[in-house]
Here is the input.
Amino acid sequence: MRIDKLLSQLKYGSRKKIAELISQNRIKVNGKTINKKDMDVNPNIDEIYVDNEKVFYQKYVYLAFNKPKGFLSANKDDLHPVLFSFIKEPYNRFDLKVCGRLDLDSEGLMILTNDGSFIHMITHPKTHLPKKYEVKLNREVCMNEVNQLLQGVFIKDGKNETYLAKALKLKCNKDTCYITIDEGKFHQVKRMFAFVNYDVIKLKRVQIGPLLLGDLKPGEHKVIGRELFYDGNYVDGV
Ligand code: URA
Here is the structure.
């Protein structure tokens, strides 16, 4: 790949800016200062430095992220702060996308990646990837009421179409429930609890398939491996 293309993809600046850096002798490849903006490099093998800072490269990046409440699962928004402001070097140099959104007022586990095929597999309805949520409700739970969620309840999706939403697992104590579902329709958990007459006052995603939120603090991210999702139990090739 051309060095100017690579570095501009990694957000070191426009191709014009990279040409400028090269003419100012600020870029080195394998220990040598380079002078050609169209030099061919292999970012997996070659050691590239910009201003004595080593360039980090991986074709695909996968991050687990704990989204704090009040941040949008979007790349940009004029109204609300977005979660991408939390992503630190070198991962903020990649065009990461969210793998399954959370509402503005929800928090917890998200996966961010630049691997489109992974996003497709993880979010495809046929994958049936279980997701577990910790839900705080507006009142103490009556199990007779919430047990309906295990049988399935008819709620509306984002397109106002009715569908049967079913909890795979449900465990409650006082005003808090852990619910596992394998879909991700618009406001699904809130709408399921609304159907049985509860308001969700706090919603936190604590697990996506085999991945646990664990002790990741709000706003923190950590690198994960794609292979975690390919043990045969979770993704069987949609
Ligand atoms: N269900 C919801 O209602 N909101 C979320 O953010 C995620 C699941």
Remarks:
- The chain has three domains: 3-54, 58-127+217-238, 130-208.
- Residues 102-103, 106, 187-190, 203 surround uracil (CB under 6 Å).
